[in-house]
Automatic annotation (TrEMBL):
GO terms for cellular component: plasma membrane. GO terms for molecular function: hydrolase activity. It comes from the Bacteria. Residues 131-242 form the Phosphatidic acid phosphatase type 2/haloperoxidase domain. PANTHER family: DECAPRENYLPHOSPHORYL-5-PHOSPHORIBOSE PHOSPHATASE RV3807C-RELATED, SPHINGOSINE-1-PHOSPHATE PHOSPHOHYDROLASE. The keyword Metal-binding does not apply. This is Phosphatase PAP2 family protein. Its main location: membrane.
Length: 281
């Protein structure tokens, strides 16, 4: 008896990898479908406005009253004993954070392409959350780079003086890229994004972000107002990306009052819940 010939062959690994990658990208640009996205958008606009207004006021107060005093209290730039701080501050470097998140995304895609059924669903749920983390940081950093170029604020002691009002807009060099702090942007965007997915990590993540912020001050890389502005840009950027994902039923749900809440995350003991709810209801 001859073998059946109507059984379709399973696509090979390259085709599976292409399908997984295509699905991951397509879900980010699909039309928003959540019925409560309008409520969430209004809440995002309201919170972003209040946060931006309060942050801008604090930045101005620090610039006028505190920046010059603070940088004069810090150890001299290049002090040898600060080497542990120089190592620690790199944990907030955008290139490193984005590289790690990007590599994690690639690894998840490579593994998911070789899995099927529930295992693939679980990995795709993890991949969606990694996409959220990556884009939260990437968008915030992109906005910060534009602001740095437009504002052109000199770093502490650029020009030889502790002058917090040393501005050369459109200058475009690292010496005049102080406002906002890129490390603060990265750290606070990551802290907000991780906390949005896994609220129990909130204290740990914002402690990490504050430590990164303080290292920038000690190393005389930024003024206090720079790091506050960076924290503001990072959080607002991550809030916007969270809304984008929630509106497309990705990793977040939207309550009736517009509050965005995380769906169960991929932690041990919760994988089945992730598989059942990779998208918002």
């Amino acid at each position: 008896m001859s073998a059946p010939t109507n059984i379709a062959a399973r696509p090979g690994y390259p085709a599976q990898l292409l399908a997984v990658s295509g699905r991951a990208l397509a879900q980010l640009v699909r039309t928003p479908s959540h019925s409560r996205r309008a409520e969430a958008a209004r809440k995002l606009a309201r919170h972003s406005l209040w946060l931006s207004a309060a942050g801008a006021a604090l930045v101005i107060v620090l610039m006028v009253l505190f920046d010059q005093t603070e940088i004069q209290l810090m150890p001299a730039r290049g002090t040898p004993s600060l080497w542990p701080i120089r190592i620690l501050t790199d944990f907030g470097k955008d290139e490193y954070v984005l590289s790690v998140l990007g590599l994690a995304l690639v690894v998840v895609a490579l593994i998911a392409a070789g899995r099927h059924g529930t295992n693939r669903t679980l990995l795709l749920g993890l991949g969606t959350r990694l996409q959220f983390l990556f884009l939260s940081v990437a968008l915030s950093v992109f906005v910060a780079e534009i602001l740095k170029y437009l504002i052109g604020r000199g770093r502490p002691f650029v020009g030889g003086k502790a002058n917090p009002f040393n501005f050369v807009p459109f200058e475009g060099t690292g010496a005049y890229a102080s406002l906002p702090s890129g490390h603060a942007v990265t750290a606070f965007a990551l802290a907000f994004a991780v906390s949005a997915l896994w609220p129990r990590l909130r204290v740990f993540m914002f402690t990490y972000a504050i430590v990164i912020l303080l290292t920038r001050l000690v190393l005389l890389a930024h003024h206090p107002s720079d790091v506050v502005a960076g924290a503001l840009v990072g959080m607002v950027g991550a809030m916007a990306v969270r809304y984008w994902f929630a509106a497309r039923r990705l990793a977040f749900a939207i309550r009736a009052d517009g509050t965005i809440v995380p769906l169960p995350g991929p932690f041990p003991g919760r994988f089945k819940r992730v598989a059942r709810g990779a998208s918002a209801p």
